[in-house]
Amino acid sequence: MFFILSLLVPVLEGCDRISSSNKNVVKKDLTRILKNKELKCSSDTNQEIETFRHHWKKNPGRYSELDLKDRWKNVQLTLYTDEFLFINESQDSLFVPAGGECILKLEEEFCGDVLRFYATSLSKGTSELLGEGELQIFLDDKKIFEQNLKPQKLEWNPYILPLEFKNVGNLKTIVKTDLQNPEIWNQTERNKEKNCNSDVFLKIRWSSKTGAGLFLGSPYILEKRNVEKKNVILIVIDALRQDSLSSGGSPFPTTPILDSFSKDSIIFKKTIANGNWTKPSMISFFTSEIASNLGLGNAWFYTSAQQRKIFYSKKPFTLPNAFRKEGYFTESIMNNVFLMDYTSVGVDLGFHKIQQVGKDNLDTEELVSRAETFFRDHKEDLFFLHLNLNTPHWGYRPPSQFLQELKKKSDPLLWNQLDEYQQKYLGEVRYTDFLLGKIFDELKKQGLFDNSWIVITSDHGELLETSHYYHHHFIAEKVYAHGETHYEKEIRVPWIIHPPKSFLNQIQKSEFSDQVSLLSLMPTLLGLNRISYPKDKLKGNDYSKAIFGEKGPESEPVIYTEGRFSESILTPDFKYIRRYPGYDLVRRTREGTSHKMPEELYDLIKDPMELENLANSNFELLGEARSILKENQLSKNSFF
């Protein structure tokens, strides 16, 4: 929900082209135009930010490319807004100290454009977090907005302000209402007649008697524009195995909703994650580069200051940044600390806004609820949403009705062969499928289901079989885990793309049977929207060419995956796994006798279940595998 400051925002006439539509597009992304001085902000923010040390959930913006002396003009600020659900809300923000001003020259026609932002104020140099002050916004010297900010709790208050000359007296009372109310977006003849071509300065001023600081979250100017690009909704389901889907080979009715969704979708039947646990996998598909090649490493949960420094120095081309450059509003709704810089475990990937729900078990329904709110608030916008559902990640606690329903509808002979945790895992999958149904229903209600690219995938699978259980010496203390092995069950994931309805007749290839990897997710999503990108920055393939019937790749002959102190390559014929020296001791069970297993090699033609390790017997194949790994492994120390 946004605070609406006027009822005079235009809607343009529709377009006859099937693949285009009117969307609210980001015209000026204010934190990103600081670097070229297009937006000029006064005051010494580097000095002023020191007085806000008590609020530690912040870091300088990583993609505004500001000089060091100005780097705190752009702040990634995170507010802890809910102590019960452990909710952190992060915004890519402008920092305006007391007495500060930001000025933007509006050189293009701006009538009908709107300024959208979130706002909060923090106190200066005290244990009291909340601050107070007055925010004023001008067009030249005409005040078009004023608001006394006196937050009662830590929160981001949203606003939308039409850029038009009008009497500020009408803005004294702020009414909270639906952003997409048709009356709000009703164009008037008075706006059409205005001369908006002359140069006008937008001025944002902040004053505070107590020295409180203003943080404007995700400030940008929107314009209504006819665009061919479509919204992109990326739903990542944590620890979802490909074979846990009914349509993916499961003998149990786990995913009736997702199965129906898949019928009109593009299916990648053999998709491999490039990391066997969350951090390296997600970083790889958000950048189309192996995470360790960006300096992050693959071993530990935390991310050191040195690793973050290396990561940003490599200037990765991230998926959120790619969409931002094209006028998309970008948001992540998730339970995933790896996408938040201040946490000491993650990095900033360039989203406008992040909502992180940290309460296990209660997180998933809250995430879905927040996604539903997002769809209502942004249904007229051009957006990229990343939604990360934490089920069916361990600890496998599905609501009982879903577990009982699945048991009732399953073959009892097959069901009773599963142990308790395998049953609960599948119950979690069934529960997640139900929640996907709620998401799809809301998308249909808001008119987004048939007008968006909707993507379903996972960051990794899950190890559930005792035949593949090896106890390692730090993470995998049980059979049911991930992050330690490179067997298919742990790294093979779903990848499903549901196209906008207007694209159905353009799709020439909807099924990819050969192996692909999630390195190709980013270039493919950009390709589907005809968004150009630097080819040398992305390692994956753009499968949109094949999807649209053009000449282009349809598979990846060699796929590299990294894990904790381990790596693997997959070809259509074999898999080779290598553990790093010093980390190759394993035990068949936790109590078993330890032995070294530095290498594993499986002939996938004869042994698709990966049960017979040939590393000590088939030396010819081992030599070939080592050679291919050498050609595809990490660019070690390339960043030092």
UniProtKB/TrEMBL annotation:
Residues passing through the membrane, by range? none
Q: Which Gene3D superfamilies match?
A: Alkaline Phosphatase, subunit A (3.40.720.10)
- The highest taxon in the source lineage is Bacteria
Tell me where in this chain the Sulfatase N-terminal domain is found: 230-528
Cite the InterPro entries for this sequence.
Alkaline_phosphatase_core_sf, GAG_Ulvan_Degrading_Sulfatases, Sulfatase_N
Under which name does UniProt file this protein? Answer: Arylsulfatase
In its UniProt entry, the species of origin is given as Leptospira interrogans serovar Lora str. TE 1992
